[in-house]
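WARN no homologs supplied; continuing
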Amino acid sequence: MRRSKVALAALIWIAVLVVMAGSADLWVPRVLGDPVAIDTTKVVAQSLKSPSFRHPFGTDTLGRDIASRIIYGARVSLVVGVLSVAIMVALGLLLGGLAGYLGGAVDALIMRLADVVYSFPYVLFAIALIAVLGKGFQNVFIAIGLLGWPSIARVFRSSVLGAKGTEYVEAARGLGASWWRILVRHILPNTAGPVIVYGAMSVGGAILAESALSFLGMGVQPPSPSWGGMLSESRSYLFTAPWLMLYPGIALLLTVLAFLLLGDALRDALDVKGKRS
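OK structure emitted
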């Protein structure tokens, strides 16, 4: 990781974002202002203020500080990204492990189910699922997690197929170990590299999916700050107040890119596909 300056920069950005979002309650409301509260007596005077020393990223149509809302929006994006990836990894490991190790009808059933999920456009399927579950923060990461497991399942299934015929698995089977113990205690620790890499990259994809859903009004609901929601609110002010779109867009771009670069660096560090020239 230290040999790649790009990966190190990505890791630093993620760390800074986590620290800022985690400690936001301690300093953001006092330094930048409350990201949600609206001062009705100053809305007209504070509305759409351009970037200044008091408001580094300017203010929105209701006079709220953009920088404050971006920091609190980072908390939403990171939590949704991590929790949704945790759901998809858990489901992917379970179903992919069962498909790869048991094979036969179980493998065919799970892979056909994955094909069914793959056949639907991701965002449209997520919108339909949220329409059933209801709008809200919790249902956003549940929907993203439930729709992302097929990729993890395919990656882990491939690793299991390559590992279940190895000597250490045959030895464990000869000693009478159950298929579940073999899968969890022997195969998973030795084949987790590709899953870790794909999981790190998937955090960026989950953050992007949450922003897309919030942009369409199906994600985190106002007044809770969300990068996608902020981009949606800025559409009418693209030329008159470009900072409404610029800074949330940059934050979203850098964060998604950082997780993709981190996943690429982890692939090199874990040497998933062997040494590359």
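The chain has a mean pLDDT of 88.
OK
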